[in-house]
Design brief:
This protein is an alpha+beta fold. 57% of the residues lie in helices and 20% in strands. A hairpin with a 2-residue loop joins β4 and β5. Bound molecules: adenosine-5'-diphosphate (ADP) and magnesium ion.
């Protein structure tokens, strides 16, 4: 009989639900023998509660409608099996139901649902973790900003201090130079005049000789005081401006060093801001000291130029050159301006200083200031 070969459970029943026939698969599915099942009504295989909620639709089946439903059938041992039931009429008040055991499918669905839930849970967990991490990052960024701000403020305070130190130093130099020039200079001149008139009025030879020596010493003193005042701070820088001061300084330097210096200036305003004039002057001084000390140059040129609001200073020698990065990385141990000190000073004044040097060819120092409009 075809019914017996089917893997689905099959049973037939009448319009009252009395079971008329069953196949072997259904017996296996529900754990009853055939004889036991033939004594049951199909309502016995469904829980009362389910029956109340989903009654068996005998009318529709009787009217020839095919009905597919999901139910849970009670096995003989009291456990329930999920099934899919397809019911239809065979004719003559006989109904047939084909029962498919869907517990495997339900289990698979359940497993998928659980996997899905698990995935969802992990996504949630991960999202929370990310939120935590991003919160931590945000806190760290705020902390860093705070540190940066502190560093920036410290740096500003340090620069301001350096600027004030530099200004105070120049001021003090100016005071001493002025003092040397005005007080010492005048008194030395008076001394000189006195000595000279003594020489004329005194006729005695030994006294004249001694006076001559005193005059010589006084001369040297005058010269020394003059040079000292000059080196401290050339008053001409304040009185007559950068170009005159530089020209005088460079002439003197060329004489002393026996190295020719070309000085070119172009487009310069009558006076620049005092601190910039001082800085440029000091840069020239230090650069020429370096050339004398280190370069072994045959010629030097100094170019000072202004184009609109940009002032540039170029000091070029044809000496032996040096390894610039090496010097930039060296510690700021020895004072005096030095290259590092020069650059620091220029930067504090809002300018930039660059050094280019090629061994065997020479060294060029570039300084640039943008003047405030
Ligand atoms: N014009 C130059 N030609 C050759 N070498 C130079 C020149 N200027 C600087 N240097 C090199 O750079 C070094 C650093 O110069 P600087 O900072 O002024 O320190 P210092 O003059 O006290 O040695 C010098 O020791 C020298 O080796
Ligand atoms: Mg030096």
């Amino acid at each position: 009989m075809l019914m017996e070969q089917a893997s689905d459970g099959i049973h037939t029943y009448d319009m009252q639900g009395n079971i008329l026939d069953v196949n072997f698969s259904l017996c296996e599915m529900l754990g009853y023998s055939r004889e036991e099942l033939l004594l049951l009504n199909i309502r016995d295989l469904v829980s009362a509660e389910e029956l109340a909620r989903f009654p068996i639709r005998f009318d529709d089946l009787g009217a020839g409608r095919k009905i597919i439903s999901e139910r849970r059938l009670r096995r003989k041992d009291g456990t329930f099996t999920p099934v899919e039931i397809s019911g239809n009429i065979l004719g003559d008040g006989v109904l047939q139901a084909i029962v498919r055991d869907v517990s495997e499918r339900k289990r698979a669905e359940e497993a998928i649902r659980r996997a899905h839930d698990e995935l969802e849970r992990r996504v949630e967990e991960r999202t929370a973790e990310l939120a935590r991490t991003s919160e931590e990052l945000r806190a760290e960024i705020i902390e860093r900003k705070r540190i940066e701000e502190t560093l920036r403020k410290n740096e500003e305070a340090r620069n301001e201090l350096l600027r004030q130190l530099g200004a105070a130093q120049e001021q003090e130099r100016w005071r001493i130079a002025r003092e040397l020039h005005d007080q010492m200079g005048q008194r030395l001149s008076a001394l000189m005049l006195g000595l000279k008139s003594l020489t004329i009025s005194s006729g005695q030879q030994p006294a004249v000789e001694q006076l001559g020596q005193l005059i010589e010493i006084t001369n040297q003193l005058v010269e020394g005081v003059h040079t000292l005042a000059w080196e401290l701070r050339p008053l001409v820088l304040d009185d007559l401006g950068l170009i005159t001061a530089l020209r005088t300084y460079l002439d003197e330097w060329a004489n002393r060093a026996k190295i020719p210096v070309g000085f070119f200036d172009q487009g310069l305003a009558d006076r620049l801001p005092a601190d910039i004039e001082t800085t440029l002057y000091r840069v020239v001084q230090e650069s020429l000291t370096n050339i004398l000390k280190h370069a072994d140059a045959k010629g030097v040129s100094v170019i000072l130029e202004q184009r609109e609001n940009n002032v540039s200073l170029i000091i070029e020698d044809d000496g032996k050159g040096f390894d610039v990065p090496n010097v930039w990385c060296a510690p700021l141990k020895d004072r005096g301006l030095g290259l590092l000190g020069m650059r620091e000073r220029v930067m504090l004044g809002g300018g930039s200083l660059n050094v280019e040097s090629t061994p065997g060819v020479g060294t060029t120092i570039f300084v640039r200031f943008a003047l405030a409009k």
